[in-house]
Amino acid sequence: MQLQLPQEDLRCAVTLNQAMLALTDEGKIPFLLDIDVSDEWQEFSDEESIWLRLDELRCRKNLIFESCITDKTRELFG
């Protein structure tokens, strides 16, 4: 499944891909979650503004990831 989600507050877009993969172990279902955050509208005047923008996009990606998983899933990451 693929979702394309505009993020109007940040003037960017999120593409969320998810898929179930082939079974490898009994009782476990491999799952793919891919989150892409893109910005095609910004113009940057200097290097610092680029890094600030990348940080904003990373924070949004992390927020979406955390919204997609449960506490039980978090426990699997150790």
Structure write-up:
By secondary structure, this protein is an alpha+beta fold. It has one domain. 36% of the residues lie in helices and 29% in strands. It contains two helices and three strands, in the order βββαα. The chain has a three-stranded antiparallel sheet, with helices on one face. Strand 1 (2-7) and strand 2 form a beta hairpin. It is elongated.
Brief descriptors of the model:
78 residues; alpha+beta; 3-stranded antiparallel sheet; 2 helices; elongated
Distance between the termini: 27 Å
Q: From the helix content, strand content and strand pairing, which structural class follows?
A: alpha+beta
Number of domains: 1
Number of helices: 2
Largest sheet: 3 strands, antiparallel
Strand order of the largest sheet: 1-2-3
Which of globular, elongated, flat, extended, rod-shaped describes the shape? elongated
User: What series of H and E elements makes up the topology?
Assistant: EEEHH
State the total count of DSSP E strands.
3
**Mind telling me the C-alpha Rg?**
16 Å
Q: Which spans of ≥5 residues are poorly predicted at pLDDT below 50?
A: none
Helix content: 25-40%
β content, as a range? 25-35%
Q: Roughly what is the average pLDDT, rounded to an integer?
A: 91
Assembly status: single chain
Condensed summary:
This protein has helices spanning 47-68, 71-76; strands at 2-7, 12-20, 31-38.
Strand and helix map with partners:
Layout: E1 2-7, E2 12-20, E3 31-38, H1 47-68, H2 71-76
Antiparallel strand pairs: 1-2, 2-3
